[in-house]
Amino acid sequence: MALELSEIRQQITQLDRNLLKLLSERHRLAFDVARSKEITQKALRDTEREQQILKELIQFAENENYQLEPQYITSIFQKIIEDSVLTQQVYLQNRLNEQRSQNLHIAFLGKRGSYSNLAARNYVARYQKQFIELGCQSFEQVFEKVKNAEADVGILPLENTTSGAINEVYDLLQHTDLSLVGELAYPIKHCVLVNDATNLSQIDTLYSHPQVIQQCSQFIHSLDRVHIEYCESSSHAMQLVSSLNKPNIAALGNEDGGKLYGLSVLKTNIANQENNITRFIVVSREAHEVSPQIHTKTLLLMTTPQQAGSLADALFIFKKYQINMTKLESRPIYGKPWEEMFYLEIEANIHHPNTQDALEELKNHSNYLKILGCYPSEIVKPVNI
């Protein structure tokens, strides 16, 4: 006899709660792993073991005839492994650095509901459950609030998979004494947000931040005679559209932020790229020490002599010392036409002797060299099998 739908749903609900209990138990075990590695000083990640775990789980499911696709198993456990890695990383970092204040102040661009706000919440929640949010009207104001001790940390977007580098943030990094202390990636899911039931043919004005407009350019070009209004942030756009309450206007932003302003989704998935991700950096007045057991990055700011091959000679040093360079970005130097300043991101801890030797040699090939920050990465690359 077939079960009633309500009975089936009750069984699913119970199974889901059992799964949550098991996930909680596994999450707690990550702290035990971190304590063990703290004593043995083993590297936080063991990608070979992660690969072996995934292979064994897939094989176990096949032997038990669980009828689960390998891709399904892999995607679920990659997320579980990511949580374990980040949990261990936060534990080691908290042990190494002074305890943060009870009321951590965090600065970000825009109001509640902006992407920077959501990324900020995502970052801080791992370290501290209570925090105070400080919305800012510009990237420069984020730097200022941290510099003036109004905020403990600031969250700033550095690059996006669709629109590329956020040049304004790079330029501000040239002139700051703040230190980079972290990074994270946040998925960006743009949608069209409106007040009431309407359709795209009625929309003649779109409000959003310039970066959002750029990332949704293909969708915007598909519309007829639409006027663009640029705002300080996507959250400002949502607030404005909500207050104007007109059927012919819409904001481009995220669904969660739209709910805060009483807006509904008219269309989703409007970004040029489906896999749209923004990388955010975290800045602080004081540098944080980074555990040698953690995957670490360092961002450098450098100028080289205006001679043929000078940049190539400088970059060759990283190959010599087997240091992986993950980013090279150039920006013009104000007051010096046609001269460039280079941002170099390397996967290295500045306290490691090998890195110190490389940086010492790099000084001989540069006119100017500054360490903007050495920081743990919260971007956990999943292993493949």
TrEMBL record:
<feature type="site" description="Essential for prephenate dehydratase activity">
    <location>
        <position position="278"/>
    </location>
</feature>
<feature type="domain" description="ACT">
    <location>
        <begin position="299"/>
        <end position="376"/>
    </location>
</feature>
<dbReference type="GO" id="GO:0005737">
    <property type="term" value="C:cytoplasm"/>
</dbReference>
<dbReference type="InterPro" id="IPR001086">
    <property type="entry name" value="Preph_deHydtase"/>
</dbReference>
<feature type="binding site">
    <location>
        <position position="26"/>
    </location>
    <ligand>
        <name>substrate</name>
    </ligand>
</feature>
<comment type="pathway">
    <text>Amino-acid biosynthesis; L-phenylalanine biosynthesis; phenylpyruvate from prephenate: step 1/1.</text>
</comment>
<protein>
    <recommendedName>
        <fullName>Bifunctional chorismate mutase/prephenate dehydratase</fullName>
        <ecNumber>4.2.1.51</ecNumber>
        <ecNumber>5.4.99.5</ecNumber>
    </recommendedName>
</protein>
<dbReference type="GO" id="GO:0004106">
    <property type="term" value="F:chorismate mutase activity"/>
</dbReference>
<dbReference type="Pfam" id="PF00800">
    <property type="entry name" value="PDT"/>
</dbReference>
<feature type="binding site">
    <location>
        <position position="37"/>
    </location>
    <ligand>
        <name>substrate</name>
    </ligand>
</feature>
<dbReference type="InterPro" id="IPR002701">
    <property type="entry name" value="CM_II_prokaryot"/>
</dbReference>
<feature type="binding site">
    <location>
        <position position="9"/>
    </location>
    <ligand>
        <name>substrate</name>
    </ligand>
</feature>
<dbReference type="GO" id="GO:0009094">
    <property type="term" value="P:L-phenylalanine biosynthetic process"/>
</dbReference>
<feature type="coiled-coil region">
    <location>
        <begin position="5"/>
        <end position="64"/>
    </location>
</feature>
<dbReference type="InterPro" id="IPR036263">
    <property type="entry name" value="Chorismate_II_sf"/>
</dbReference>
<keyword id="KW-0175">Coiled coil</keyword>
<dbReference type="GO" id="GO:0004664">
    <property type="term" value="F:prephenate dehydratase activity"/>
</dbReference>
<dbReference type="InterPro" id="IPR008242">
    <property type="entry name" value="Chor_mutase/pphenate_deHydtase"/>
</dbReference>
<keyword id="KW-0456">Lyase</keyword>
<feature type="binding site">
    <location>
        <position position="50"/>
    </location>
    <ligand>
        <name>substrate</name>
    </ligand>
</feature>
<dbReference type="InterPro" id="IPR018528">
    <property type="entry name" value="Preph_deHydtase_CS"/>
</dbReference>
<feature type="binding site">
    <location>
        <position position="88"/>
    </location>
    <ligand>
        <name>substrate</name>
    </ligand>
</feature>
<keyword id="KW-0028">Amino-acid biosynthesis</keyword>
<dbReference type="Pfam" id="PF01817">
    <property type="entry name" value="CM_2"/>
</dbReference>
<comment type="function">
    <text>Catalyzes the Claisen rearrangement of chorismate to prephenate and the decarboxylation/dehydration of prephenate to phenylpyruvate.</text>
</comment>
<keyword id="KW-0413">Isomerase</keyword>
<comment type="pathway">
    <text>Metabolic intermediate biosynthesis; prephenate biosynthesis; prephenate from chorismate: step 1/1.</text>
</comment>
<keyword id="KW-0963">Cytoplasm</keyword>
<dbReference type="InterPro" id="IPR002912">
    <property type="entry name" value="ACT_dom"/>
</dbReference>
<keyword id="KW-0057">Aromatic amino acid biosynthesis</keyword>
<feature type="binding site">
    <location>
        <position position="46"/>
    </location>
    <ligand>
        <name>substrate</name>
    </ligand>
</feature>
<feature type="domain" description="Prephenate dehydratase">
    <location>
        <begin position="105"/>
        <end position="285"/>
    </location>
</feature>
<dbReference type="GO" id="GO:0046417">
    <property type="term" value="P:chorismate metabolic process"/>
</dbReference>
<dbReference type="InterPro" id="IPR036979">
    <property type="entry name" value="CM_dom_sf"/>
</dbReference>
<feature type="binding site">
    <location>
        <position position="84"/>
    </location>
    <ligand>
        <name>substrate</name>
    </ligand>
</feature>
<dbReference type="InterPro" id="IPR045865">
    <property type="entry name" value="ACT-like_dom_sf"/>
</dbReference>
<dbReference type="InterPro" id="IPR010952">
    <property type="entry name" value="CM_P_1"/>
</dbReference>
<keyword id="KW-0511">Multifunctional enzyme</keyword>
<keyword id="KW-0584">Phenylalanine biosynthesis</keyword>
<feature type="domain" description="Chorismate mutase">
    <location>
        <begin position="1"/>
        <end position="92"/>
    </location>
</feature>
